[in-house]
Amino acid sequence: MTDSGPAGQHTVRRHNCALVLDAIASSPGVSRAEVAARTGLTKATVSTLVDRLVTASLVREEGRQHRSGPGRRGTSLSLSPDGPCGLGVEIGVDYLATCVVGLTGEVHAEHVRRFDNRDRPPSRVLARAARELDRALADTARRRLTVGGVGVAVPGLVETSSGRVIDAPNLGWQDVDLATDLREHLPTLPGDLMIGNEANLAAVAELEALRHRDEDTPDSFVYVSAEIGIGAGIVLDGALFDGSHGLGGELGHFPVQPRGPRCSCGARGCLERLAGQDAILERAGAADVDTLVTRLDAAERPAITAVRSAGRMLGSALSAVVNLLDVTTIVLGGTYARLHPWLVDPLTAELTDRLMGSPWRSVEVRRSVLGAEAAVRGAATSALRTVLTDPDTYIARRVQAEDRTTNSVGSRIDGGSGSSPAS
């Protein structure tokens, strides 16, 4: 084993800075002394790092703590609402969405544009995505918001270590180096570029939203994302589980009819081919989801039959997941969130019939609190997480950017002082 040697001063500061910010993010209102006690750092080190975080607008001091009992009250610390934002973009099969999320979870802007991205060359779709990102960056600049990183949600297999899209069958993409290609279209993207599967990112956003709302948040659940395709984000013990390579959660390609219709992945009888949005609309004779919901409200038989059939097939696939993982909650997102009132009974009935030990355990089927916005918010949140886990690098980039701006302004002033025409 090779000895990498002792950590340098910068490495130690980088680690400690992240440690302090995490303590503050985990317990808003905490004091410097309490951060020191939680992290094991000295009070002097914590005070220096907190000052650095406050200067970078990552942390805000909010006056004396409110508490009863003896002892000196410390200054309350929390994440700053004026801090950096995460910018997310979701590349859907038939739309592009952008979202800007602040450090404390507030959504500053959301926008959706309808595009048919199916079987379009990746370069063309990414050129569109770059234009949407450019518009969002211009909007954040007008609002005087700082973007700390960019996240991209894609409906397909994404290798988490590289951000490479291995396969996105509903887009017709294979082996796309999305990070490199997107930066070619928009080389000025700020901060780190994070790329992930849309269902995984939606699950993370859903978990954060439930925590912010102080609702009864399950530690483990399966988030089912449904648009044209069907994906699943698996949360176990409060953390995303996406497999060894980041390729887990492909619920839409569970076989439910071995001799069924051919799927975009090449196999037959996949769940999304039989219970996805397009399959439901076709069976119901509806042009779009809005029309379908209207017909469901009117209790039209073809619409009810189509959704109930999809619910039973979805329940069959999910029963295998629940039997394997023993989760207690299913969260329906995307189109399924809108169809929840009509899906939940047949889905739950199928789960009950197929679950081992069903008399002794139950599974709750919830509607997503974020609905169709979950994936793009998850993309923005994932970008922001790079700042929270490595604030020292973000601060260094910010200082460098300010230095470049100062030097550029100084050069223009110096150049202008000696260039005025003679009178």
Automatic annotation (TrEMBL):
Pfam family, any one: ROK
Q: Where is the composition biased (Gly residues)?
A: 413-423
The keyword ATP-binding is assigned to this record? no
Which UniProt key words apply to this protein?
Kinase, Transferase
Transcription regulation found in the keyword field: no
What CDD domains has UniProt attached to this entry?
ASKHA_ATPase_ROK_BsXylR-like
Q: Name one GO molecular function term.
A: DNA-binding transcription factor activity
Q: Give the record's family classification.
A: Belongs to the ROK (NagC/XylR) family.
| Protein name according to UniProt | Transcriptional regulator/sugar kinase
